[in-house]
Specification:
Blueprint lengths: L1 E5 L4 H6 E8 L7 E5 L5 E7 L1 E6 L2 E6 L5 E6 L6 E5 L4 E7 L13 H10 L2 H10 L3 H15 L6 H10 L5 H7 L4 H12 L3 H16 L6 H7 L5 H12 L3 H7 L8 E3 L1
Parallel strand pairs: 6-8
Antiparallel strand pairs: 1-2, 2-9, 3-8, 3-10, 4-7, 4-9, 5-6
Helix pairs in contact: 3-4
């Protein structure tokens, strides 16, 4: 399979969407298996003519006997997940930044977004995109769809919390700064981000390390630059979120790529 990642072409979409990738069929039909790692994106994908079986930490994609479009949502990716394609497929997957998807639908809770998207024209549009053979036209249809759905939402408290999570402040201090309780911080996070405040910060630190690794020379630097207590704290989180040590991770995963996968 060939995977091609794109940044949104339209500047408005860049503010809310990290990017999207197309998977194309090839002639080899060889199975592909890889690990993908926790992140804080809201991920929406559409795959043509497949059956999908999944459990926590494991997804298997096989060919379908009948034509279909399978739409999948990942709003809480908190463990390493093994993805197994038994054969080549056609797929489109979109990554939305935290809170980004709320500006395209009316739901006020993460658990309501999936139902709203299923009830919308999303599947029909994805079917049109996947059946189109011209990549330029595919991108045009896709981005015009999202632009037609855009309605800017006012979510000041949640955006403030996202900014505060990138600082050294404890969750208790963040709550006090915003004149709310720690319990309310977690309630807001579960509602809009599909995870607790501490889980969101843990995954965000991990993702920031992947970016910082291009500049930093060692784990000690990475630890303190990304708000870990120390190197041991970084190693502990890395093993929990990737199943391997930071050293082995960086030896085997190309963090310069948009899709950070470990092929197995």
């Amino acid at each position: 399979m060939k995977v091609t990642f794109y940044q949104p072409a339209h500047p408005l979409l860049k503010e809310y969407m990290e990017g999207y990738y197309f998977i194309e069929k090839d002639d080899s039909q060889k199975p592909i298996k890889y690990l993908t790692f926790p992140d804080n994106y809201f991920i929406v994908s559409a795959c043509e003519n497949v059956c999908v079986t999944q459990d926590k930490g494991w997804v298997e994609i096989t060919g379908s006997q009948s034509e279909n479009i399978v739409v999948d949502f990942v709003f809480r990716c908190s463990v390493p997940t093994e993805i197994f394609y038994r054969q080549s497929v056609r797929e489109l997957t979109m990554y939305f930044k935290p809170l980004g998807l709320y500006h395209f639908f009316t739901s006020d809770k993460s658990q309501d977004l999936e139902q709203e998207i299923h009830l919308s024209d999303f599947t029909d549009i994805m079917n049109t995109v996947l059946k189109e053979s011209d990549r330029t036209i595919q991108i045009e249809i896709l981005e015009n769809y999202w632009l037609s759905k855009f309605r800017k939402r006012e979510l000041p408290l949640v955006y403030t919390l996202l900014e505060d999570f990138e600082t050294e402040m404890s969750i208790e201090a963040i709550a006090a700064k915003n004149n709310i309780t720690r319990q309310y911080v977690n309630k807001i996070c579960q509602r809009y981000l599909a995870k607790s405040a501490s889980e969101f910060r843990k995954i965000q630190r991990f993702r920031n390390v992947l970016i910082s690794n291009k500049k930093s020379r060692n784990l000690t630097e990475l630890s303190y630059e990304n708000l870990f207590y120390d190197q041991s704290h970084l190693i502990k989180d890395f093993k929990e979120l990737t199943r391997i040590s930071p050293g082995k991770f960086f030896e085997n995963v190309d963090t310069d790529k948009n899709n950070i996968w470990l092929f197995i």
